[in-house]
Amino acid sequence: DNLSHSFSRLDQIESDLVTFNDRQSKTEYNLKQVTNTVNDTEEKSEKLEKEIMMYKEIIYETKQGLADLEEHLRVQRQFNMITNIRGHLIWKINHYSRKLKDAKESDVPLKSPIFSNKHYGYALRLDVHLNGIGTWKNRNLIACLTVVNGDFDTLLPWPCKLKADIILRDQPDDLNDAVDITKLVITKKRNDRLEYQNQFIHIPHQIVNSGNYIKNDSIIMEVKIQKTYEGVALRASTPKSTTPTII
Question: Where is the MATH domain (predicted)?
Fold first, then answer.
């Protein structure tokens, strides 16, 4: 009986050993599978990280490209606003009667489109007070040429001084009969940040209302830059005053 029990016990042990070996084999197989899965996951993770970095670079390049494009469009829009880059502006002011009425209630000037004396030159603008200013108010049209801030001011020589003709164009049916009103003006600016004193021109309303200066409720102003003095010294005694010099 003892022997039979021993053999039975041995068979049981052998069976358990086989079962254990099977389990070990399956465990090793599963471990190998898990290891392969982990390795595969790590490989995929590294690949995914590389793809993420690539997409980040693409997004950055796209954002930078859009920012550059917006800047180019902004500059292009500014250039499109520049009526002329040869120091010559012709500006038609429509609805003169209404704008003169508005000017009598406000001292805000009309401002022309920006123009320039040359490619990438000084940014210029004609400012017009249809009803005058100060002691000249209610009797005169007052105008001045202003050097405004431009994108390329840091590349330009300062101070600057410009001599220009401001013209009120006559508009007769026969242009041979035209008698334009021309006034010489000098405008100065010390540097790319500091506004300098402007010289104003005046044209009496009595003259504006005569002849054919007003036609179809419109007047035409013209500016011709005669000469630009770049980087010349301006007189230190010239006052920085908001009181206009009117000629």
Answer: 86-225
